[in-house]
Amino acid sequence: MKIYGIYGAGGYAREVMPIARAQLASRNEHESPIYFIVDQKEENEVNGHYILTYSEFLASPATERFIAVAIADSNARESLTEKCERDNLKAWTISALNNIIMDDVKIGSGSILSPFVTITSNVQIGKSFHANIYSYVAHDCIIGDFVTFAPGVKCNGNVTIGDHAYIGTGAIIRPGKKGTPLTIGEGAIVGMGAIVTKSIPPNTTVFGNPAKQLSKTK
């Protein structure tokens, strides 16, 4: 028997659970159980799904174990992903059934795509990407590992985004040009509602319209 886990039991994990449930139902895996996975258990059930500690999930009888890490902090997400890989858990990519994925799109393992996400053509995305509701990624974008899009992010074409970048709710990233993409550096933070009109260095926080540098994050 296959079993599935969503690492986390907070707000984001609770939003992901019905998406995951619908995905399995669409594959006729109605009988496969899905659990919330936590490190320390304070309750036994949330929204009709049992909560297991990580060690309980590892010990549960199964032929295959799949897990998606629904933790917002990208550094914690990376650490937990590495732990799951060491324990031979299979990364689970979750995508809402109403998403639109076009031609030649590559999405890394363990990613989570919330409802109404659109990814157009010729896009490369790294592992454990989180795209929240109503976000989109346009043509010829390259996105690194452990990147987070908050709700309503608009990433236009020919944009490159480094690992661990965070793009805030409603932010708009203008298109780059073929051969000279607009670049958002590794670990950069784009504030809520920001309008990004030029490249952003690594580990930098920007906000406003047009987006301006607030601080270095490291």
TrEMBL record:
**MF (Gene Ontology):** acyltransferase activity
Key word Acyltransferase present: yes
Active-site residues?
139
InterPro entries to which the protein is assigned, alphabetical = AcTrfase_PglD-like, PglD_N, Trans_hexapeptide_repeat, Trimer_LpxA-like_sf
SUPFAM superfamilies, per this entry?
Trimeric LpxA-like enzymes
An example of a Pfam family matching this protein is PglD_N
Looking up CDD domains in the UniProt record yields: LbH_AT_putative
This protein's UniProt keywords: Acyltransferase, Transferase
Query: Which parts of the sequence are marked as the site Increases basicity of active site His?
Result: 140
Give start and end of each PglD N-terminal domain.
6-83
The protein's matches in PANTHER family, at most eight in alphabetical order, are given as: ACETYLTRANSFERASE, UDP-N-ACETYLBACILLOSAMINE N-ACETYLTRANSFERASE
Q: Which family does it belong to?
A: Belongs to the transferase hexapeptide repeat family.
Q: Mind telling me what this protein is named?
A: Sugar O-acyltransferase, sialic acid O-acetyltransferase NeuD family
Q: Which organism is it from?
A: Pseudogulbenkiania subflava DSM 22618
